């Protein structure tokens, strides 16, 4: 599904060059649950932006579902994002004055899907993310942090993406609530077969995935299967 070939990223500010990524190579197959782990400043956020088609590499190639998107235009990248990628962010990014079910259906509004089909898809996504039906018409400020993140997960699922990209999904949650969110990801992966790439700086969070790609100073320093994977119950 995903392949990075000799990816490099350099930011230029006047005469100053900042090398964010160097010679990044890896593949992620359909149905894998992978964590990309690294400290602040390691380059993992830059890599996430490239994987999510929010940015393009300076050098190398990035392929998603066999398509080389490295030289795609902004419009072409936007189409890939809307059709193939579901995003889950640390800050939830929910609209405060819109109900849960309407928040979930928003990506389909932008895709010009008719209302009846949007609502049906939103209900399916909320069910998949284990969000209780009696809260579907609540506003985000009436929910706990964990419930808001599950709404964000449902929104990521609503367009049936090839890839779910989660950026520090437990960063704003307490430990117990974070475990519930990670349990949701593991359930989606095991029961629905979703491909999940999770960005984190915490080893404990990364160990909920099947495989960890460890990045430091813009380079991959290890890429290994998780030996003692944490399974939430």
Strand content: 25-35%
Strand order, sheet with most strands = 6-7-8-3-9-10
Give the fraction of residues assigned to helices: 25-40%
Oligomeric description of these chains: single chain
Q: Round the mean pLDDT to the nearest integer and report it.
A: 92
Biggest beta sheet attributes: 6 strands, mixed
Work out the radius of gyration.
Answer: 18 Å
The dominant shape is: globular
User: Could you name the ranges where pLDDT drops below 50 across 5 or more consecutive residues?
Assistant: none
Cα distance spanning the termini: 29 Å
Number of helices: 7
Write down the secondary-structure element order. Answer: EEEHEEHEHHHEHEHEE
| Category from helices, strands and their pairing | alpha/beta
Task: Let me know the number of strands.
Answer: 10
Brief summary of the model shown:
By secondary structure, the chain is α/β, with parallel strands linked by helices. The chain is built from 7 helices and 10 strands.
Characterization of the model:
This protein has 233 residues and is α/β, with parallel strands linked by helices. It has seven helices and ten strands. The protein has helices at 44-51, 74-84, 100-110, 115-128, 145-157, 175-192, 203-206, and strands at residues 2-13, 16-28, 33-37, 59-64, 67-68, 85-89, 163-167, 195-200, 211-216, 219-225. The protein has a six-stranded mixed beta sheet. Helix 3 packs across helix 4 (115-128). It is globular. The protein starts with a strand and ends in an 8-residue tail after the last strand. The mean pLDDT is 92.
